[in-house]
Amino acid sequence: MPISDNHHYILSYYRTGEITGALFFGRLAKIMRPGPIQMDMTKHFADEAAHAYYWTEAIRRLGREPLKLRDSYQDQYNEAIGIPVNVMETLAVTQVFERRVINAYARHERAPNLDPVVKETITKIMEDEKWHIYWIKNALTGLESEYGKDHIEETIKRYWLADKEVYANTMQEHEERIDEIMKGKG
Ligand SMILES: [Fe+2]
Ligand SMILES: [Fe+2]
């Protein structure tokens, strides 16, 4: 039996988000100065591209075609808080965003009667997402001498508040569908 409409939408949303992430980090990796951040960001870009493929494959294995969705969550972000202006701001907004992603996947993974294809895909992706949080945290620590610890913390806090606001304002449909999935309804 093909997956429910709720899952069809949510998995397509994940796919779109992973593609947007891959394109964002890919562009940065292309223009960045050589060094450890360039290397980790290139790996990060490659991971997000792989995740987009995993979801595309999963949706097809579940008997549907990916939905073409106009905006990703990141697009809403850029509209609300602007494009980051330096490496530190980029990493700060990414840290906030990656935490949002990992929490969303962790929550979905706990849904009752989850299809094994969905579970397997989330588990596989979560391994990489944990590393994303880890390398960004380390990179931000490494930038403290340049930008100042307090300034970095304030920046993260600013993005964290913006993230909460963007989510509350733009993700109602997503939330309703996830709610139903968490109640075991598709
Ligand atoms: Fe990802
Ligand atoms: Fe990620």
3D architecture notes:
By secondary structure, this protein is mostly helical. It has a single domain, classed as Up-down Bundle (Ferritin). 80% of the residues lie in helices and 0% in strands. The chain contains 8 helices and no strands. Helix 1 runs antiparallel to helix 2, helix 3 crosses helix 7 and helix 4 crosses helix 7. It is globular and about 55 Å long. The N and C termini lie close together (12 Å). 31% of the residues are buried. The model has no long low-confidence stretch (mean pLDDT 92). The protein binds fe (ii) ion (FE2) (2 copies). The site of one fe (ii) ion has 6 residues, from helix 1, helix 2 and helix 5.
Highlighted features:
mainly alpha; Ferritin; 8 helices; binds fe (ii) ion
CATH class: Mainly Alpha
Radius of gyration: 17 Å
- Domain module tally: 1
Shape: globular
Q: What compounds sit in this structure?
A: fe (ii) ion
Average pLDDT level: 92
In the CATH hierarchy, the architecture is: Up-down Bundle
Oligomer: single chain
Number of helical runs?
Answer: 8
The span between the termini is: 12 Å
Number of strand elements:
0
The third-level CATH topology is Ferritin
**Beta-strand content:** under 5%
Order of helices and strands: HHHHHHHH
Derived from helix and strand composition plus strand pairing, the structural class reads mainly alpha
CATH superfamily: Ferritin, core subunit, four-helix bundle
Low-confidence stretches: none
